[in-house]
Amino acid sequence: MADHGASKINHDNHLLLDQPLLRLPYELLRKNIRSAHYHIEWDTNAVKDLLKETATNSINQKASKQDVVNNLDQMLARMRGLKRKLSTYAEEENRLYRQSTARVAHLRELSDVHTVEDVKYEAWSRQRLDRLVVDYMLRHGYNKSANALAEERNMLGLVDIDTFVAMSKIRQSLENGSVQEALVWCNENKKELRKMQSKLEFELRCQQYIELNRSSCPKLEAINHAKKHIMPFSKTYPTEVSHIAGLLAYRADTPHEPYASLYSSARWKKLADLFTDAHLKLLGLPQFPLLHIALSSGLSALKTPACHSSQQNQSHQGQKSHKSATPGPGQGEEQESRSHGTASLQTSVCPICSTELNALARNVPYAHHSKSHLLEHDLMLLPNGRVYGKAQLDEYAEKSRLAAGEVKDLVTGEKFREDELKKVFIT
Amino acid sequence: MASEKPKLEALEEEYAKINKLPRLTKAVEHVDKIIELLSAAREQVASAPESHTAITITKLQNPVKSAFEAVNDGLKGAAAANKKMGKALDKSFPLKPLPTDHDAMADHVSLINRAIAMHLLREGQFKVASTFIDEVQSTTKRENPEYLDERMDDGNYDEAASTTSSEAYDLSSLHSQELQESFAGMYYILQELKARNLMPAITWARKNSVELEARGSNLEFELSRLQFVWLFKGPSVNGLPDDENNGQRGALQYARSNFGRFQARHLNEINQLACSMAFAPNIAESPYRQLFAIDTAFSDVASSFTREFCSLLGLSAESPLYLAATAGALALPQLMKYTQKTLAKGTEWTTSNEMAFETPLPESMLYHSIFVCPVSKEQTTDANPPMMIPCGHVLAKETLQKLCKGARFKCPYCPSEGILKDARQIIL
């Protein structure tokens, strides 16, 4: 349905896809402060304790002058270390604040745009698409492409390459059979993961245990690992822990379930997915690319029954052959089928009918319309069943240099006499 | 009024305030202070006699303690600023969860990749496109070595009869191939147009004149006419060398050698251009001034060139990915409203043929005529096509069948009656 209201931008609801743009730096800031807090606490306590101890010992004459100097040196080293770490966090904080400010300004630009027809909207919306595409590339691990596009479009501040690159590194290490990097990440985000009730750490520990079982025959090491890292989960995941215990009795080539799938290498992919899920959730990011959301909603909104209709396809045959017959030489024989190819005069091809999206749109429902919407007025029916606007037919007849009283079908190229036409009434 | 202020404006102001709050750098300053205190004490202990050690170190306790408190305060300040940011976000940019319980696109990664690659090509991002295609291919190869053989998925593409082979689904076909070359060609022509050089565009239009004419496009003539006007304006405007190929003489010569082919179709326009020669000294006040006002002419021909160029390739003039993403952003609020309400029922909006709710789009985003049967209120489809009855009114086929009493029916909109076999299926 087309009305003028439809081209008005609803500011409260237009930035749904852009929420992560501001949410992510906020979450990253929070994480940054958390890490800073951890280091401050750790080093502060150590230095405080040592200072107190040194003072007591020095008063009780248990420590020599040299001992005191040594201890002070130790404290200084710690504080210098803390300063170095804190400075990086402070830098990161400044960077995130700068980024957030720039992003708010970018989103705010839209406040001045009130309709979709505004040229400023197009520029803004194009940049949004670029952002969505970069997000898509990053989530699929196409990091080089993402970087290239962001650089080319000069919008590195509006996309989160570092976050996703860090994520895909850990993901890749899991896919390559190493849990170490993921465990470090778990440790950094222990509290939050616990709040989310994430299973990730448990699964990683299980994987370590499975690998120990796979490689060593005296399974002492595996048993020790289980005691230390897996037993604490026995109340939370009783079934899994019992399976894990049973694994001791099976070799890696066992056909018996559930042990076979525990030994299976497909488990690494599962871990990688689990990690990605947890990582995205922790940062408040949607589980799949924003472009998917935009596309599934957009394809449906644009799609009409005509886009995949067989009748339309008749008229598209010509276009299809154009595509294969792109400007290359030696395509002379195609000329004939081309000449009556494209649909209507001066109109451009519908985005859903265009090759890029046609197959993709096959899987989505078409838009709901409660009112007829006709692109042309004064409709006339040709004897072959096709309907065109009077003005369209006249214009095409003139451009085709037809004799007076003749019209030509815009799609098929058939010629008819004007008195064969019938008026069509659409109510 | 504060309540009328756009939310993002409010958010921007809020962020500006938060930007002034103390950050972690404060904590770093206090850490520095502790380092100073400790090193001063160390020097003192090292240089003073043994008996002074205890006093120095005891004296150190309190200043260090308060410096540590200051470090902590600095941290708290930074945390408070962060919290303020969260509150500002919640107030002015409240989180609305996206419909992420179902990803209808997840199974079609290869199709999306192809759409992105084509989008990049048509945007003229050839380098990015080729990086992207390489990266996609190496990933697919790594994950599934046999993948490339079976080509892209979605084998149920049922237009095998058309000349599009399954190759179109393979990204490699986009690589260093026709499509890329044609888009590169298009970009070259557009760039030249921007630089006010019409010749490459004219050459292209001449090469494709048969197809353009079939489309009813006057592009070739429009370009040639603009070239005439452009030459006519002379070196002071067009900056071309001042010789016999430029100015009025050049224009006349251009017309002589090029306008012949347009005589049948555009005699009128050519006559006008010829007559304007007589007014050459004072075009601006002549009846022909309209013809010579070319402020927007170059951008106009550029956009009609893009449209024709893409149409001849069977592609839409505007990037479909751009249109779909924009339409998606416009339709998303409706989709979310709907999913929220139906969440409880557990129905999936993507499973039926037609959406259950309207997603209004601006007029410029409608590409097909939509016919909704005025009786059944259903959109017509291949299975239920629009039918015109003898009086000229149009109904959906199913409606017509229900309306029939025997073979006869009465039009719901006018007094006339008809019989079923006189109704004709039409293509709108």
Provide a brief overview of the structure.
Chain A has 427 residues and is mostly helical. Chain A is built from 17 helices and 6 strands. The model of chain B is unreliable at 146-169 (pLDDT under 50).
Please characterize this protein's 3D structure.
The complex is a heterodimer of chains A (427) and B (428). Chain A is mainly alpha-helical. Chain A folds into 4 domains: 7-113; 114-158, no CATH class; 175-281, no CATH class; 377-421. Chain A is built from 17 helices and 6 strands. Chain A has helices spanning 19-59, 65-108, 119-139, 143-152, 161-175, 180-188, 190-196, 200-215, 220-230, 238-246, 259-263, 266-282, 290-302, 310-324, 335-339, 355-361, 390-399; strands at 366-368, 379-381, 387-389, 406-408, 415-417, 422-423. In chain A, strands 3-2-6 form a 3-stranded antiparallel sheet. A two-stranded antiparallel ribbon of chain A has the order 4-5. In chain A, strand 4 (406-408) and strand 5 (415-417) form a beta hairpin. The radius of gyration of chain A is 33 Å and the shape is elongated. Chain A starts with 18 loop residues before the first helix and ends with a strand. The model of chain A is unreliable at 312-346 (pLDDT under 50). In chain B, a hairpin with a 6-residue loop joins strand 4 and strand 5 (417-419). Among the domains of chain B are: 4-92; 180-313, no CATH class; 372-425, Zinc/RING finger domain, C3HC4 (zinc finger) (Herpes Virus-1). Chain B is built from 16 helices and 6 strands. A 3-stranded antiparallel sheet of chain B has the order 3-2-6. In chain B, strands 4-5 form a two-stranded antiparallel sheet. Chain B has 428 residues and is mainly alpha-helical. The interface between A and B is large, with 172 and 165 residues.
